[in-house]
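Protein data:
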Amino acid sequence: MKLIDDKGRIFGKINIIDFIIILFLSSLLSMFYYGYKLFYFHPKPKKNFYTQTLSIKGLVYDIAPEVLKKINKGDKAFDFLGTEIGEITDVGEIKRVDRKISLGNDSIMVEDSALPLSLNLKGKIENDSFIFNNKIISFNKSIDFKTTEYELKIFVIDSERETEKKEFEFKTIRVMALAESVFPEVADLVSEGDMEYMKSNQTGGNLISGKIISILKKDNSKIILINKEDKKIEFVENPQSRDIELVFNLNVQKKENQIYYNNVPIKIGESFIFETARYNLNCRTLEIINDK
Protein backbone atom coordinates (compact mmCIF):
# COMPACT_ATOMS: atom_id res chain seq x y z
CA MET A 1 0.00 0.00 0.00
CA LYS A 2 1.28 3.45 -0.93
CA LEU A 3 1.89 6.03 1.80
CA ILE A 4 0.03 8.63 -0.27
CA ASP A 5 -2.42 7.40 -2.93
CA ASP A 6 -3.43 9.09 -6.22
CA LYS A 7 -6.03 11.21 -4.42
CA GLY A 8 -3.51 12.65 -1.93
CA ARG A 9 -4.72 10.60 1.02
CA ILE A 10 -2.38 9.07 3.59
CA PHE A 11 -2.78 5.29 3.52
CA GLY A 12 -5.93 5.94 1.51
CA LYS A 13 -7.76 7.22 4.62
CA ILE A 14 -7.02 10.85 5.47
CA ASN A 15 -6.31 13.80 3.22
CA ILE A 16 -2.80 15.19 3.70
CA ILE A 17 -4.11 18.76 4.10
CA ASP A 18 -6.46 17.59 6.87
CA PHE A 19 -3.56 15.82 8.54
CA ILE A 20 -1.47 19.02 8.52
CA ILE A 21 -4.36 20.99 10.02
CA ILE A 22 -4.74 18.38 12.81
CA LEU A 23 -1.02 18.61 13.60
CA PHE A 24 -1.20 22.39 13.72
CA LEU A 25 -4.21 22.37 16.07
CA SER A 26 -2.52 19.84 18.35
CA SER A 27 0.60 21.97 18.64
CA LEU A 28 -1.57 25.05 19.26
CA LEU A 29 -3.37 23.33 22.14
CA SER A 30 -0.02 22.38 23.65
CA MET A 31 1.14 25.99 23.40
CA PHE A 32 -2.00 27.24 25.15
CA TYR A 33 -1.63 24.64 27.93
CA TYR A 34 2.01 25.37 28.76
CA GLY A 35 1.44 29.10 28.35
CA TYR A 36 -1.33 28.96 30.94
CA LYS A 37 0.90 27.06 33.38
CA LEU A 38 3.70 29.56 32.86
CA PHE A 39 1.66 32.72 33.45
CA TYR A 40 -1.24 31.67 35.68
CA PHE A 41 -0.12 28.71 37.73
CA HIS A 42 1.92 29.58 40.83
CA PRO A 43 3.24 26.75 43.02
CA LYS A 44 2.58 26.97 46.74
CA PRO A 45 5.47 28.60 48.57
CA LYS A 46 7.60 26.28 50.69
CA LYS A 47 6.37 26.24 54.28
CA ASN A 48 8.71 27.95 56.71
CA PHE A 49 9.94 25.37 59.22
CA TYR A 50 11.02 28.04 61.72
CA THR A 51 7.73 29.36 63.06
CA GLN A 52 8.74 30.38 66.60
CA THR A 53 11.44 32.48 68.24
CA LEU A 54 12.94 31.71 71.64
CA SER A 55 15.11 34.11 73.64
CA ILE A 56 17.64 32.29 75.81
CA LYS A 57 20.51 33.03 78.15
CA GLY A 58 23.37 30.57 78.17
CA LEU A 59 26.89 29.87 79.36
CA VAL A 60 29.90 28.68 77.39
CA TYR A 61 32.46 26.81 79.50
CA ASP A 62 36.16 26.26 78.74
CA ILE A 63 36.17 28.61 75.77
CA ALA A 64 39.43 28.89 73.83
CA PRO A 65 40.97 32.41 73.69
CA GLU A 66 41.15 32.39 69.89
CA VAL A 67 37.42 31.60 69.70
CA LEU A 68 36.54 34.19 72.35
CA LYS A 69 38.07 36.95 70.20
CA LYS A 70 35.74 36.06 67.31
CA ILE A 71 32.45 36.21 69.24
CA ASN A 72 30.43 39.40 68.72
CA LYS A 73 26.91 40.66 69.15
CA GLY A 74 24.98 40.03 65.92
CA ASP A 75 26.78 36.79 65.00
CA LYS A 76 24.38 34.39 63.27
CA ALA A 77 24.04 30.61 63.14
CA PHE A 78 22.83 28.66 60.10
CA ASP A 79 21.47 25.17 59.43
CA PHE A 80 22.83 22.77 56.80
CA LEU A 81 20.72 24.48 54.11
CA GLY A 82 22.19 27.88 54.94
CA THR A 83 19.02 29.17 56.63
CA GLU A 84 19.52 31.55 59.55
CA ILE A 85 18.43 29.85 62.80
CA GLY A 86 19.93 31.99 65.55
CA GLU A 87 21.59 35.26 66.50
CA ILE A 88 23.69 36.42 69.46
CA THR A 89 21.99 39.46 70.99
CA ASP A 90 24.41 40.14 73.85
CA VAL A 91 27.91 39.05 74.92
CA GLY A 92 28.89 39.24 78.61
CA GLU A 93 32.24 39.06 80.37
CA ILE A 94 33.96 35.88 81.51
CA LYS A 95 32.89 35.25 85.13
CA ARG A 96 33.05 32.66 87.90
CA VAL A 97 29.90 30.54 88.18
CA ASP A 98 28.59 27.54 90.11
CA ARG A 99 28.32 24.54 87.80
CA LYS A 100 26.38 21.33 88.46
CA ILE A 101 28.33 18.24 87.36
CA SER A 102 26.65 14.82 87.11
CA LEU A 103 28.59 11.85 88.47
CA GLY A 104 26.54 8.76 87.70
CA ASN A 105 23.46 8.93 89.92
CA ASP A 106 24.89 11.81 91.95
CA SER A 107 25.89 15.36 91.19
CA ILE A 108 28.24 17.94 92.69
CA MET A 109 28.54 21.73 92.48
CA VAL A 110 31.89 23.10 91.32
CA GLU A 111 33.14 26.61 90.63
CA ASP A 112 34.00 27.25 86.98
CA SER A 113 34.50 30.12 84.54
CA ALA A 114 32.04 30.78 81.73
CA LEU A 115 31.07 33.31 79.06
CA PRO A 116 27.43 34.52 79.39
CA LEU A 117 25.53 34.93 76.11
CA SER A 118 22.02 36.04 75.15
CA LEU A 119 20.55 34.67 71.92
CA ASN A 120 17.42 34.55 69.79
CA LEU A 121 16.79 31.09 68.35
CA LYS A 122 14.39 30.10 65.56
CA GLY A 123 12.58 26.79 65.67
CA LYS A 124 9.20 25.16 66.20
CA ILE A 125 6.98 23.96 69.04
CA GLU A 126 6.23 20.25 69.49
CA ASN A 127 4.37 18.91 72.56
CA ASP A 128 4.97 22.26 74.29
CA SER A 129 8.75 21.89 73.82
CA PHE A 130 10.86 24.24 71.73
CA ILE A 131 12.83 22.45 69.00
CA PHE A 132 16.02 24.14 67.85
CA ASN A 133 18.07 22.48 65.13
CA ASN A 134 16.30 19.14 65.86
CA LYS A 135 17.05 19.38 69.60
CA ILE A 136 14.73 20.15 72.53
CA ILE A 137 15.74 23.24 74.53
CA SER A 138 16.08 22.26 78.21
CA PHE A 139 17.63 23.90 81.25
CA ASN A 140 21.31 23.06 81.80
CA LYS A 141 21.37 21.12 78.51
CA SER A 142 23.66 22.20 75.71
CA ILE A 143 22.90 23.36 72.18
CA ASP A 144 25.30 23.70 69.25
CA PHE A 145 25.55 27.21 67.82
CA LYS A 146 27.49 27.18 64.55
CA THR A 147 28.50 30.26 62.58
CA THR A 148 30.77 30.57 59.56
CA GLU A 149 33.66 31.41 61.91
CA TYR A 150 33.25 29.18 64.97
CA GLU A 151 31.10 26.62 66.78
CA LEU A 152 29.95 26.89 70.43
CA LYS A 153 28.40 24.48 72.92
CA ILE A 154 26.05 26.65 74.94
CA PHE A 155 24.39 25.49 78.18
CA VAL A 156 20.91 27.00 78.61
CA ILE A 157 20.25 28.76 81.94
CA ASP A 158 17.06 30.69 81.11
CA SER A 159 14.60 30.99 78.24
CA GLU A 160 11.46 32.83 77.19
CA ARG A 161 9.36 32.43 74.06
CA GLU A 162 8.71 35.54 72.03
CA THR A 163 4.95 35.08 72.59
CA GLU A 164 5.23 34.58 76.35
CA LYS A 165 4.59 37.35 78.88
CA LYS A 166 5.80 37.09 82.45
CA GLU A 167 3.48 38.28 85.20
CA PHE A 168 6.48 39.40 87.21
CA GLU A 169 10.23 39.15 86.91
CA PHE A 170 12.71 37.18 88.98
CA LYS A 171 15.37 39.02 90.98
CA THR A 172 17.89 38.09 93.65
CA ILE A 173 17.75 39.47 97.19
CA ARG A 174 19.90 38.82 100.26
CA VAL A 175 18.12 37.81 103.46
CA MET A 176 19.28 37.09 107.02
CA ALA A 177 17.20 34.34 108.65
CA LEU A 178 17.09 32.08 111.70
CA ALA A 179 16.36 28.36 111.69
CA GLU A 180 15.37 27.37 115.22
CA SER A 181 15.31 24.05 117.08
CA VAL A 182 17.05 22.10 114.32
CA PHE A 183 18.01 18.48 115.06
CA PRO A 184 21.81 18.18 115.49
CA GLU A 185 22.16 15.62 112.69
CA VAL A 186 20.37 18.02 110.33
CA ALA A 187 22.38 21.02 111.55
CA ASP A 188 25.61 19.16 110.76
CA LEU A 189 24.51 18.90 107.10
CA VAL A 190 23.95 22.63 106.67
CA SER A 191 26.89 24.23 104.84
CA GLU A 192 27.72 27.42 103.00
CA GLY A 193 27.00 27.04 99.29
CA ASP A 194 24.01 24.71 99.76
CA MET A 195 21.32 25.36 97.15
CA GLU A 196 17.62 24.87 96.66
CA TYR A 197 16.25 24.21 93.18
CA MET A 198 12.84 24.94 91.75
CA LYS A 199 11.08 23.21 88.89
CA SER A 200 10.93 25.24 85.67
CA ASN A 201 7.84 24.61 83.52
CA GLN A 202 9.34 26.56 80.65
CA THR A 203 12.59 24.69 80.40
CA GLY A 204 11.82 21.31 81.85
CA GLY A 205 14.80 21.42 84.20
CA ASN A 206 15.88 22.77 87.60
CA LEU A 207 16.64 26.44 88.31
CA ILE A 208 18.52 27.67 91.37
CA SER A 209 15.96 29.05 93.80
CA GLY A 210 18.11 29.91 96.82
CA LYS A 211 21.65 29.59 98.14
CA ILE A 212 23.26 29.81 101.59
CA ILE A 213 25.89 32.57 101.39
CA SER A 214 27.16 32.37 104.96
CA ILE A 215 26.45 30.78 108.32
CA LEU A 216 26.72 33.41 111.05
CA LYS A 217 26.29 31.04 113.97
CA LYS A 218 25.25 27.50 114.78
CA ASP A 219 24.61 27.24 118.53
CA ASN A 220 22.65 25.05 120.90
CA SER A 221 19.05 26.14 121.22
CA LYS A 222 17.94 27.72 124.45
CA ILE A 223 14.90 26.80 126.45
CA ILE A 224 13.18 28.83 129.19
CA LEU A 225 13.06 27.49 132.74
CA ILE A 226 10.93 29.16 135.41
CA ASN A 227 11.84 28.57 139.04
CA LYS A 228 8.56 27.87 140.86
CA GLU A 229 9.86 29.17 144.16
CA ASP A 230 11.28 32.54 143.26
CA LYS A 231 9.62 32.82 139.81
CA LYS A 232 12.97 33.57 138.18
CA ILE A 233 13.33 32.94 134.45
CA GLU A 234 16.44 31.21 133.17
CA PHE A 235 17.64 30.44 129.66
CA VAL A 236 19.29 27.03 129.50
CA GLU A 237 21.05 25.49 126.50
CA ASN A 238 19.40 22.47 124.94
CA PRO A 239 22.06 20.12 123.46
CA GLN A 240 19.39 18.22 121.57
CA SER A 241 18.70 21.05 119.09
CA ARG A 242 20.49 23.88 117.31
CA ASP A 243 19.67 27.45 116.28
CA ILE A 244 21.30 28.44 113.00
CA GLU A 245 21.59 32.03 111.80
CA LEU A 246 22.21 32.25 108.05
CA VAL A 247 22.45 34.64 105.13
CA PHE A 248 20.71 33.57 101.92
CA ASN A 249 20.59 34.70 98.33
CA LEU A 250 16.97 34.10 97.32
CA ASN A 251 15.64 34.16 93.76
CA VAL A 252 12.33 35.94 94.35
CA GLN A 253 9.46 37.41 92.36
CA LYS A 254 7.96 40.81 93.00
CA LYS A 255 4.31 41.59 92.52
CA GLU A 256 2.36 44.58 93.81
CA ASN A 257 5.23 45.70 96.08
CA GLN A 258 5.48 42.26 97.72
CA ILE A 259 8.30 39.77 97.19
CA TYR A 260 7.67 36.02 97.04
CA TYR A 261 10.04 33.10 97.49
CA ASN A 262 8.56 29.88 96.08
CA ASN A 263 5.15 31.61 96.27
CA VAL A 264 5.65 32.44 99.99
CA PRO A 265 5.76 36.16 100.97
CA ILE A 266 9.10 37.26 102.40
CA LYS A 267 8.41 39.48 105.41
CA ILE A 268 10.47 40.20 108.53
CA GLY A 269 9.31 37.90 111.33
CA GLU A 270 7.61 35.42 109.00
CA SER A 271 8.89 32.02 107.89
CA PHE A 272 9.85 30.35 104.62
CA ILE A 273 11.12 26.84 103.82
CA PHE A 274 14.60 26.25 102.42
CA GLU A 275 14.73 22.74 100.95
CA THR A 276 17.70 20.83 99.57
CA ALA A 277 18.10 17.20 98.55
CA ARG A 278 19.39 16.38 102.06
CA TYR A 279 17.36 18.53 104.45
CA ASN A 280 14.62 21.11 105.00
CA LEU A 281 14.95 24.25 107.12
CA ASN A 282 12.09 26.32 108.48
CA CYS A 283 13.62 29.82 108.48
CA ARG A 284 12.29 32.99 110.10
CA THR A 285 13.28 36.18 108.29
CA LEU A 286 15.29 38.54 110.49
CA GLU A 287 16.39 41.13 107.95
CA ILE A 288 16.09 41.84 104.24
CA ILE A 289 19.62 43.09 103.57
CA ASN A 290 19.00 44.33 100.04
CA ASP A 291 15.86 44.59 97.93
CA LYS A 292 16.75 46.74 94.93
Q: What stands out?
A: The radius of gyration is 36 Å. The chain has a mean pLDDT of 81.
